[in-house]
Design a protein that fits this description.
Distance between the termini: 37 Å
Shape: globular
Radius of gyration: 18 Å
Order of helices and strands: HEEHEEEEEEHEEEEE
Number of helices: 3
Length: about 260
């Protein structure tokens, strides 16, 4: 069991309840990363489901849970021959923090009937760059859990040269050796800096709603993350992320609605 497996572990205590312990190692300067929190919820949902894989997840982030004990409450809405539908709630101190609707099914790795190519070609990994390590007092512990190598133009905001477009692109792998699985993908699709950074904005950008789809089981090796946005207006922005595996297949895609960064 890897550290990530332990950090997302869900232990069943009754028919509808799982105990979890939210790990402080996935903090983005105070709040916990939304992808990590979804992975925790999905551990409980998949354990309860007759199917193996979370193929569609929609989460609404009502509050920002703190590191420490919490519970996931699951309600199986319907289970058919090929899919099951579950409502899951992450609860801490008796208060609902995240509400999720999850569809589970079993993927078999069939060859695609049609597969569009990626709209962006990443440079070789040796031409990509890491962000500087955050200062210890920043509380940014998430960086230590993964390795991200960025397409250089998409982190021009770091030196005051943003591209002016909402975008982010990087190679992703876990810091501890671990092949990607659906739970790692839940983390990965929310691992990039907010795409509005590249449009010249900064600060914590809280996610309000995030939907992601598991499209295929990933091959071993690093993932390629391609993030973009369509509209920034009235203090809101959207962010789309595609995750491609080492075999060049689209394995996950997401869309989230978030608030423009706050200090």
């Amino acid at each position: 069991m890897t550290k990530f497996d332990e950090a997302t572990q869900a232990i069943r205590v009754d028919e509808n309840t799982y105990d979890v312990c939210l790990d402080p190692g996935y903090s983005i300067g105070g709040p916990l990363n939304g992808g990590y929190l979804m992975a925790v919820v999905l551990r409980a949902v998949v354990d309860d489901s007759p199917f193996e894989h979370p193929v569609s997840t929609t989460s609404q982030f009502h509050k920002s849970p703190a590191a420490g004990p919490a519970q996931v409450r699951v309600e199986r809405l319907k289970a058919g021959r090929t899919a099951a539908f579950t409502r899951a709630t992450l609860v801490q101190d008796g208060v609902a923090q995240i509400e999720s609707l999850v569809t589970t099914a079993t993927l078999h790795g069939a060859d695609p009937v049609y597969a569009a190519p990626s709209a962006h070609r990443m440079p070789p990994a040796e031409e990509c760059v890491k962000l500087p390590d955050p200062k210890p007092e920043s509380g940014m512990t998430l960086n230590a859990q993964m390795e991200l190598l960025f397409d250089p133009p998409t982190i021009g905001w770091l030196t005051g040269e943003p591209t002016g477009r909402p975008e982010a692109r990087a190679y992703f792998r876990m810091a501890e050796p671990q092949d990607p699985d659906p739970f790692v993908l839940a983390l990965a699709i929310d691992a990039l800096p907010p795409v509005v950074f590249s449009a010249g904005m900064r600060g914590w950008a809280p996610t309000v709603d995030l939907t992601w789809h598991l499209r295929a089981l990933p091959a071993p090796g690093p993932l390629t993350l391609i993030g973009s946005g369509r509209l920034i207006a009235d203090g809101w922005f959207d962010e789309d992320v595609e995750a491609w595996d080492a075999a060049g297949r689209l394995v996950a895609q997401s869309r989230q609605l978030a608030r423009v960064g706050r200090g």
